[in-house]
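Lecture 7 notes: from sequence to structure.
We start with the chain below.
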Amino acid sequence: MSTWTSHCTAPDSADARVMLREYLAETVRRWHGRPERPGEVSAALEESPSDDLSPPTGLLLLARRDGHLAGCAGLRWRPGWAELTRVYVRPAHRGAGGGAALLAAVEPYARDAGLDRIRLDTRSDLVEARALYARHGYREIPAFNADRYAQHWFEKLLPARVDDALPAR
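Predicted structure tokens for the same chain:
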């Protein structure tokens, strides 16, 4: 049985830079159906930076499986909701619950920020990601942005925290 842990980090930390490059390299490969070309990942990082995945505009979680760097997920704070982004699990760690662990890990941060929903967009070719989101309570909704790579939009309503439901003493 694997143990998954996660922690917040700055997007410019060494481990975060590695994970974000791997995430974007895979999205480039899958989008184009070929290996990434020199400079494409750097161009994708410039086109879609992750520097806002830190306070006060968001956060970035790094996941470890049995102590080994294995994945990442980010949240961007939007008015009234959080945007889930950069969800990635390294291929060697897939099928071991990392996606579920990352989704579970981001929810308390969104609730603690006073938000009751998480939204995301994704692409048609990311079949595994769409299945993961659906399994974990995300439902498809109408488009909420005009991102040129977005083809599917999802939302999950977050349950209230237990302490929010308790009457005041």
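Points to note: Helices lie at 14-32, 40-47, 98-112, 127-135, 162-165. The mean pLDDT is 94.
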